[in-house]
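ERR on first pass: missing label on line 2. Operator R.T. fixed the label and resubmitted. Corrected input:
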Amino acid sequence: MNEVLLTLNAGSSSLKFAMFDADTASTRARMSGEVANIGRAPVFSAKDANGKALDKGAMEKLEAASNHAHLIAQLLQWIARRHGDQRLVAVGHRVVHGGRQFSKPTRVTDSVLQELETLVPLAPLHQPHNLAAIRAVAKWQPDLPQIACFDTGFHRSQTRLAQLFALPRALSDEGIIRYGFHGLSYDYIAGVLPEYLGDQADGRVIVAHLGNGASMCAMKNRKSVATSMGFTALDGLMMGSRCGTIDPGVLLYLLQAKGMDASTIEDLLYRQSGLLGVSGISNDMYVLEQSDAPHARDAIDLFNYRAASILAGLVPAIGGLDALVFTAGIGENSALTRQLICDQLDWLGVALEPAENDRNAALISAAKSRVKVFVVPTNEEAIVARDCRSFLS
Ligand code: ADP
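pass 2 clean. output:
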């Protein structure tokens, strides 16, 4: 009987899953899919390794379900029915925050789960859903090994300096430091960099993970040296509905002068800001690019202005720039975003080849560009599967 691994990536409004062979190092999923639009009208889709769509019947059943726990239970049943001839040997989860306690993939036990629960306030948009998925699997098959893979883990190669805030020492000592996120995505990109850059892969590279959540990571020797996100996934770039870096004085003003309470401010910063807040139209870059509304263009321009200035701020940490990599939904698909960011970086020696950029080619920089610019699709699931395999062996 074939042994397989399941990876789950439970987000605020989506649940992504993929199934991999347990005994090969393949980064290609046997099948993968997603329940999108959770909380509104969930839509299920799944495809096999060749991209062929699977199972319409199951899609209809899932559309009726409403909350995460219910959807996860249905998804697990669907997987069990559909893959009865394969033995599931482990489930790997993307878990956004590992805090100070967890930097390496970790087998989930009751006590690990309890510790991860204490990190919920640090990632309110993601961590509760990540943990709900773990609990749902434990209820379904209590003895099935579950491995938590952390988005914060990749950044633990950074120096202490890069991780510190300028706060009183006692607060840093208790763990109020810069953790960084999107580590599974950066880990994947670091692994495939030699295919694109050859010997230069170990040089000075900035990876821009631009999705609904967005961050950048400055790497040297394919290790994280500095990153734009900090204690929480709110920091750094402007995002779909998150504000990114903000003067902390604004928060004091909202609390003290406007009388907002903490949960109102949390909602404002995580869910009402970013592209959505500035445009007043959508958190979705594609939607904004299709719009003629001036506020949509304002949001796009601010996103790219902030991205270019944050990128420039990361360069000193690696002493220059040899290559820039765009990845994730916006990074892989939005030629406009890449162009607007790169146009602000010509002083750094960045020049795009417009035709290659327009067709989302792998290498999009011009021959004369001092910095090579690439579009590289990310694959966080492949990293979770890799970490599960090394755990099992
Ligand atoms: P998540 O952080 O939820 O995984 P993704 O990496 O899937 O997000 O990225 C979602 C973002 O990518 C959305 O803003 C979406 O509009 C954007 N996107 C996807 N395709 C395109 C495209 N062709 N043009 C512009 N933006 C796109």
